[in-house]
Amino acid sequence: MDRLGTVHHEMHPRPRVAIIGGVHIRQAIALLEAGKVAKPEPFKSMDIARSFLNFALATLMKDEAPAEAAVAYAKALKSPDNPYSKDPIAYHRLGIAIYKGQLAPLSNEYNEKFGGKQSSAEQTAMMYKLVKLSDQAIDAYARAVALMDKPELKNARAQDLAQLTTLYKAFHNNSDDGLNDLIAGVLSKPMP
Description:
Elements: H1 3-11, H2 14-33, H3 46-61, H4 66-78, H5 88-114, H6 121-147, H7 154-170, H8 179-185
Helix pairs in contact: 2-3, 3-4, 4-5, 5-6, 6-7
């Protein structure tokens, strides 16, 4: 590594830590998924271990690779025994990761390719992906808002609700009709 690279890593060690840590966490997840772990200690079950490792990977990668973080957060939160199901921060982070890592880049690509052009099969397919990603991000933010029911989370709830409202309106003809019902019932439904 040249001197400039060394200085960069000395000043900004997080990317290097994320890369190294991410490698080890991915290896641990691969061992779990390959059935090569007999006892998931200190975890109570394989599902909890898998959920924890995916959440750790997502948290480590959220700044450097938000698309990868979105996938890992979703795996962690969709796991049957996940310990994060009542944690609003987990859903908040999932919403951010989906938005920054998947939805915004695809939206930019869509606008560059199809802005002001006539409809096509490729455009329709990409719009379908955008709507699916928006549904996932909206669901994540709605879960975060629904779980922020404690008085000490009032400000965080207001911020997430503002983000959720903006995103919701962008995909619902600039209307927030149905948003309150979504928030009220989101925790009783499975994640998309």
